[in-house]
């Protein structure tokens, strides 16, 4: 019994070719639409950057905008590196003080009234006491009204502040350059200054401010020819470190390959995407900013995600269900998100949602 293989008719071949062409046409249109969407989003971001960095009303091309943005970010990074050790949390810093002013205020309150000897090496305390209490070193009270003040320089070692309380104590060589001058006590309003109530042989730091490796110290002592109840003699000096050292400690955290951070508006639109995201989801930050997170979720998971979103708006924090996210390579990956809502520090209104997205293997 023979079997014959029948060739497909010309009509069926044409039908198959038409279907194939239609699929190719749909794919091409989809790619063009996606490309147009990315171009529009890119142009929107360029226009926003241009409005921020433009120094005049003249329209800039894209490359000029990007160059100006890079220059601006480099400048901001340099400023941030210089100021990172003096940065103060806004939630407990008075709003009317700058970071530098508040830092100096905290330094002064931390050191004011502290005996200078407590900050010095023990073997140098006797020499400092001799310098401050030697009558020959101090000017005669009758000459205090003269404009000329003799300057003195003393080199001592002072205790260095530490970042952690468990750190060992270290000392830095400091040069004190200053002069003696009178100090009225008590004050005009009748309130005793702290240094006026101390013993005669005590030497305390009455004020201290530091800027650029230097600082102002006032150490009090009593001149033998002057009554303690009326006037004291203080040594006012500028302290300069012999070798200034700036703290540049930064915590280096190894980013995981299965986790990235994003920030969303309350309507769940992307506002921020960290540097780890592109290796996981394939999208660069500028490709998703302004788009809705729901555009990337599997249709079967939308109801569950919407329920989690509603629960988040009620509680302010939580953990999402497991859901599928469509990567740029058109692959589905399973994610779970830990999120919380941040609130404005002044009016307590919700601002945005911070998410930590973890790949579920």
Topology:
Blueprint: H1 10-53, H2 62-83, H3 99-111, H4 116-119, H5 125-133, E1 152-159, E2 171-184, E3 210-211, E4 214-221, E5 231-241, E6 259-264, E7 270-273, H6 277-281, H7 285-288, H8 302-315, E8 317-319, E9 323-326, E10 332-343, E11 350-359
Overall domain count: 3
Q: Overall 3D geometry?
A: elongated
Count of separate DSSP helical elements = 8
Extended strand count: 11
**Cα end-to-end separation:** 56 Å
Structural write-up:
This protein is α+β, with helices and mostly antiparallel strands. The chain folds into three domains: 20-79, Helix-loop-helix DNA-binding domain (MYOD Basic-Helix-Loop-Helix Domain, subunit B), CATH 4.10.280; 99-241, Beta-Lactamase (2-Layer Sandwich), CATH 3.30.450; 259-359, 2-Layer Sandwich (Beta-Lactamase). Helix content is 32%, strand content 23%. The chain is built from eight helices and eleven strands. The chain has helices at 10-53, 62-83, 99-111, 116-119, 125-133, 277-281, 285-288, 302-315, and strands at residues 152-159, 171-184, 210-211, 214-221, 231-241, 259-264, 270-273, 317-319, 323-326, 332-343, 350-359. Strands 6, 7, 8, 9, 10 and 11 form a six-stranded antiparallel beta sheet that branches. A hairpin with a 6-residue loop joins β10 and β11. α1 packs across α2 (62-83). The two termini are 56 Å apart.
Keywords:
361 residues; alpha+beta; MYOD Basic-Helix-Loop-Helix Domain, subunit B; Beta-Lactamase; 3 domains; 8 helices
Outline of the structure:
This protein is α+β, with helices and mostly antiparallel strands and 361 residues long. It has helices at 10-53, 62-83, 99-111, 116-119, 125-133, 277-281, 285-288, 302-315, and strands spanning 152-159, 171-184, 210-211, 214-221, 231-241, 259-264, 270-273, 317-319, 323-326, 332-343, 350-359.
